[in-house]
Write a structure and sequence with these properties.
Elements (H helix, E strand, L loop, with lengths): L34 E3 L10 E2 H19 L2 H10 L6 H13 L14 H4 L4 H4 L2 H6 L4 H15 L10 H10 L14 H4 L2 H17 L11 H17 L3 H9 L5 H18 L12 H5 L7 H14 L6 E6 L6 H16 L4 E5 L2 H17 L7 E4 L54 E5 H5 L8 H8 L3 E4 L7 H16 L4 E5 L4 H14 L4 H5 L9 E6 L5 E3 L2 H11 L1 E9 L11 H8 L1 H5 L3 E6 L3 H16 L9 E4 L5 H15 L8 E6 L13 E5 L3 H8 L6 H7 L15 E6 L17 H14 L4 E3 L3 H9 L12 H24 L33 E9 L5 E2 L19 H8 L2 E5 L27 E8 L2 E2 L2 E3 L2 E6 L3 E4 L1
Parallel strand pairs: 3-8, 4-6, 4-7, 5-6, 7-8, 11-16, 12-14, 12-15, 13-14, 15-16, 18-21
Antiparallel strand pairs: 1-2, 3-9, 9-10, 11-17, 18-19, 18-20, 21-22, 23-24, 24-25
């Protein structure tokens, strides 16, 4: 009889132990009446035996090691266990951690399901009364029992942070939250000697199936985090209802046969989940990205020079890419990924951006790139909180299979959080999208890995297998910069290649991020203090993680890029006054004057960027009346784009704006786009002129990057429709509407959108350059440093006491944000002691409770219409009623999408003065995990016309053309 089967012989004899372990007593013959899974399975059959589930998880962990984990992850896990070069032993130990994850179910857990408990053998059922009176999670129970179980397997427990303690922490963390080792369960919950014997018997069965691996030499905390991620993923994959039902109905007679079957089935499970990595057919540059022509000098330099700069890359490295907007940084990053993934042993990438809108657009670009390289079967996900609303996710894909992650002991109190519209593809389920080989999403989803939220270990596993790309690295406030630095610290430990992209990154910020990465890779802070890492502009810099060696783009190629992209941006400053009609400098009158050539001349395109939604709405109304109506017969077009449109309307408007001002056209005869900050990041727009409210200088440069963006390309390949620039546009031009010029103040309606100190510095710097313009790219970095750099905090010679106050407020806010981030984030990788430190905040916090961004909390608002007959509808005409959930709160996926696609993100404090129930969702939605959290604006319909809703001293309404209005 095979060793793995000896434990389920009847009373024929004892279990054969591994070498050095005494013979287990006769009563410890493995008892398969101990159940591991019950809920959702066939009630006519006994529950799924625990030992079978443990073997399933162990087999899946082995397959994950072989197929899913990247080379850098395998090497780091082995190194962190003190097993350099002994990958097979590290592999078996990872399998053992997965195979022991539910050992705590051999406890009072067995009685949390009355039906399942009835299947227990009489020996174990005896004395169950005391066990069932206590309540505890089986994760904590397993952590408590781990030392005894591992001792039976030959592990030593010599010190507090021994390998035994690490495995115990992993077992305790397999539901996504680590616990202090001292916070165990009482002995009554673990049961008597018979239960202890069964825990040993179950563990021995798993241990022997894996070849009886011996304890590792060490077990570093960051490595234990990765192993926990593997355990969680393995558990989830083998806990799917369909898989469990099939196994329950066709149990193999022996554990050996069962384990072999589990190993064989693991490949299918992984493939069906979309997690099996694929090899792309690497095409040449033009074919890969669908771009006509050759790579620019920046891109060519990465292709030619980065391989030598990266060297062996055993410990990863970090790369900064700086270039003006429109210089193809995205394609540059993807070329760098191709090189770095091969050198550093990662596969795939995660591409992160500041907003959901920019993520949606980048997802489409990446999808095309993958298709161009035969990557149709590659796992590609869109990763942000509303990703499932994307048109890439069809309604018929939203109903899927349940993952049975627990059976009662961790069921949350209160509102049911089980998703009612589970994505059909496994990767689209909660917390899973980052696990895909290729992922595009918001930076927030990655930053969760270094916040004390559940399953941060799973996020760390997902991120550490890929090249990590962050676009718009300048766009994050000090709070987010600290979180990003902390994440880079962990990625440095794991040897993950990192690529940071920016058009306006202050050198001090880039320097801090590089040093955080190198600290994670093992470089001493004292040594790093003596070094700086200034990235050339334009160009790139690469710092090797192991040696700290720094290489830059060659000067020859950099000058080629400068010549290829050289452009003089004309910068004009117009002093304006907000909300003062008829006076000199009236902002709207100035805008109308500046856009007169568009309206009456040769046409053309203009982009007007406003700092608030209210300003954008008012500007649009005035321009539509003055320009659009006058030129209607000639085809004039004024468009409005901001973040306070219902989701489906915003998506449609973004597509229209991008089509009209995009690279491929067709180019409109006339087009004026009035927008907010939504257009300044990653949207690929080209206008003949850009008008912008005063903003911090780095953002003005971003906005200016939407002016004549594709001129070089069109010069080589022809203009869309064959229509060139209008006669009045003789070069790229940025007009800044400066309310602070000549001693003015920040408009009241802007609130705290931007720091008054940065606005003031920008205004003064613009006054110095008016007339001469800005040479791009030569002048960009110097301007950014002058306003945003650390070299000079404040010029005390600047007159005006309010300027001193503005500087103090700016520095105080920056310091507070950095301090808050440092308090919230987990420790740096090499400073973690116990894994419970990764969940140091009290309570059951999760993604929706720990913010990756500071500022006013937001909620999602649905603007509905209350008809006179009491019905709630999507439309004022009353033809589209809101969908109703069933009594148990369930709703078809299409109904959920229909609602959520029409929601608008707004500030939560807008509803502070409202009666508690005024904005509550319909009663049938109350228990739904998404719909139950909505605010619903019920706009009364009287005689066919929708009425505004008064809240405090404001009125709220949804306007078909202007979007959501608060006035």
């Amino acid at each position: 009889m095979d060793a793995i089967d000896s434990g389920i012989a009847s009373a024929a004899g004892p279990i054969s132990g591994v070498e050095g372990v005494g013979m287990l007593p006769r009563q410890n013959v493995l008892d398969e009446s101990v159940w591991g899974k019950s809920r959702g399975l066939d009630p006519a059959l006994p529950p799924y035996p625990l030992v079978r589930h443990l073997l399933d998880a162990a087999a899946m962990a082995l397959h994950l090691w072989d197929v899913y984990l990247a080379d850098n992850q395998r090497a780091q896990i082995a190194d962190g266990m003190g097993l350099v070069g002994d990958l097979d032993r590290a592999r078996a130990l990872v399998g053992l951690c997965a195979g022991l994850h539910d050992i705590g179910k051999l406890s009072g857990f067995q009685f949390c399901s009355r039906r399942a408990a009835q299947s227990l053998s009489s020996e174990l059922a005896t004395g169950s009364q005391r066990m069932s009176t206590e309540r505890a999670g089986h994760d904590v129970a397993g952590m408590t029992a781990a030392a005894e179980v591992l001792t039976a397997l030959g592990f030593n427990d010599d010190d507090e942070m021994s390998a035994t303690a690490r495995v115990a922490e992993i077992i305790g963390g397999h539901h996504g939250r680590f616990h202090p080792l001292e916070n165990g369960v009482g002995p009554a919950f673990l049961g008597d000697a018979a239960w202890a014997g069964q825990r040993a018997a179950h563990a021995t069965a798993v241990h022997e199936a894996l070849g009886a691996p011996t304890a590792p030499e060490s077990f570093e905390a960051p490595v234990a985090v990765l192993v926990t991620g593997v355990v969680i993923l393995a558990d989830w994959l083998v806990s799917q209802e369909g898989y469990l039902l099939q196994r329950q109905r066709t149990l193999k007679p022996s554990l050996t046969a069962h384990f072999r079957r589990s190993q064989a089935d693991a490949a299918t499970l992984l493939r069906d989940a979309g997690l099996t990595p694929v090899e792309l057919e690497r095409k040449d540059f033009a074919e890969a990205y669908g771009i006509g022509g050759e790579p620019n000098p920046l891109q060519q330099s990465v292709m030619d020079e980065l391989p030598a700069a990266a060297g062996a890359g055993r410990r990863g490295g970090i790369m900064l890419v700086t270039a003006a907007p429109g210089d193809g940084k995205s394609e540059t990053a993807l070329e760098a990924e191709r090189i770095l993934s091969k050198i550093c042993g990662t596969h795939g990438f995660v591409f992160l951006l500041p907003t959901m809108a920019t993520s949606d657009q980048m997802h489409d670009r990446v999808a095309r790139t993958l298709r161009n390289q035969s990557g149709e079967d590659a796992g590609l996900t869109l990763v942000h909180s509303m990703a499932w609303l994307s048109s890439a996710y069809a309604d018929d894909d939203l109903d899927g299979e349940t993952v049975v992650t627990c059976d009662g002991d961790e069921a949350p109190a209160g509102r049911r959080r089980e998703a009612d519209m589970r994505p059909g593809r496994w990767l689209r389920g909660p917390k899973r999208p980052l696990l895909a080989q290729f992922a595009v999403g918001t930076i927030d989803q990655a930053l969760m890995a270094v916040l004390p939220v559940r399953h941060n270990a799973l996020r760390m596993l997902a991120l550490s297998s890929k090249t990590f790309i962050v676009d718009e690295a300048h766009a994050y406030d000090p709070y987010m910069q600290v979180l990003l630095g902390r994440l880079l610290n962990w990625l440095g430990f794991y040897g993950v290649p990192v690529v940071l992209l920016s058009a306006t990154l202050p050198s001090s910020v880039g320097d801090r991020l590089v040093k955080e990465y190198l600290r994670g890779a093992g470089h001493k802070p004292t040594a790093l203090k003596r070094r700086t890492f200034p990235a050339p502009y334009p160009g790139w810099l690469y710092v090797d993680g192991e040696s700290g060696r720094c290489k830059q783009m060659s000067q020859v190629r950099r000058m080629e890029q400068v010549r290829a992209r050289n452009m003089r941006l004309r910068v004009d400053v117009e002093r304006v006054v907000h909300g003062a009609k008829g006076v000199a400098g009236d902002r709207i009158a100035v805008i109308k004057r500046l856009l007169e050539p568009v309206a009456t001349g040769d046409g053309g395109t203009a982009l007007v960027v406003c700092n608030t939604v209210g300003d954008a709405q008012e500007t649009y109304l005035q321009l539509r009346e003055a320009i659009d109506r006058r030129c209607h017969e000639e085809g004039s077009d004024v468009q409005l784009l901001h973040a306070r449109f219902p989701g489906d309307v915003r998506e449609e408007r973004t597509a229209e704006v991008t089509a009209g001002l995009g690279r491929s056209g067709p180019r409109p005869v006339r087009r004026i786009v009035v927008a907010t900050q939504v257009v300044e990041q990653s949207l690929d727009l080209d206008a003949d002129i850009v008008l912008s409210d005063l903003a911090p200088l780095s953002l003005l440069l971003q906005r200016a990057g939407r002016c004549w963006r594709h001129e070089n390309h069109w010069q080589r390949h022809g203009y869309p429709n064959g229509r060139g620039r209008p006669g009045w546009s003789d070069g790229p031009r940025l007009v800044v509407l400066d309310a602070m010029a000549g001693g003015g103040r920040v408009p009241v309606q802007w609130g705290e959108v931007y720091s008054e100190h940065l606005l003031g510095k920008t205004s003064r710097k613009l006054a110095e350059i008016v007339g001469g313009g800005i040479v791009i790219p030569d002048d960009v970095q110097g301007l950014v440093e002058a306003v945003h750099g650390d070299s000079e905090d404040f010029d005390w010679n600047v007159p005006g006491g309010h300027k001193v106050k503005a500087w103090a407020e700016h520095k105080g806010k920056e310091t507070a944000e950095r301090s808050m981030a440092a308090l919230r984030a987990v420790s740096r990788a090499r400073q973690v002691g116990g894994l419970h430190e990764l969940h140091h905040m009290e309570g059951e916090e999760d993604e929706w409770e720990v913010s990756t961004r500071l500022g006013a909390d937001s909620v999602r608002l649905l603007c509905a219409y209350a008809q006179e007959d009491g019905r709630l509808t999507f439309d004022a005409e009353g033809k589209e009623p809101l969908p109703e959930a069933t009594k148990d709160g369930r709703m078809p996926a299409g109904g959920v999408r229909q609602v959520m696609r029409r929601t608008i993100p707004v500030r939560a404090d807008w509803f502070r003065d409202a009666e508690p129930d005024i904005f509550s969702p319909p009663s049938s939605w109350a228990e739904h995990p998404m719909l139950g959290d909505l605010r619903v604006l019920r706009q009364p319909v009287r005689q066919g016309k929708a009425q505004a809703v008064k809240v405090g001293d404001k009125t709220l309404r949804l306007h078909q053309d202007l979007g959501f209005i608060r006035e």
